[in-house]
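hey so i finally got around to running the thing on that chain from the lab meeting. sorry it took forever, my laptop kept dying and i had to restart like 3 times. anyway pasting the input first so we r on the same page abt which one it is
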Amino acid sequence: MHVLVTVDASADDLRDLHSWLTDEPDLRGRVTPHESPPPPGALGPVLDGLHIALGSGGVAATLAGVVIAWLKTRPAEITVRLRRGDDEFEVTASGVRSLDPAAVADLAERIRRSGEKSLSPDQDTG
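ok and heres what got predicted. didnt touch it at all, straight out
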């Protein structure tokens, strides 16, 4: 199962998230950049997402933990979307920063479950 992770920020932010994800041993080799063809007049493809190959063994939980930790470090408002097919789960930096540790754990569990099952738009946090 693959999940597409996108952010509503710059390609630099997406590259930074890619770095965070690939620093995790459970996610190494599972994260692939998703690039679009360059717009007219631009050089090279445009990074617009990250494909994450999920499987058994807690990979979805690791993905959830990294996304939450990364969002907590963002100084500006950023939204991360995890999408599989037509299903999408959205998490915002401001929504994560305001959570206490118990709520962070609950959010991580919701993201984990979403990665292991069908992603549900009615589980948005933001």
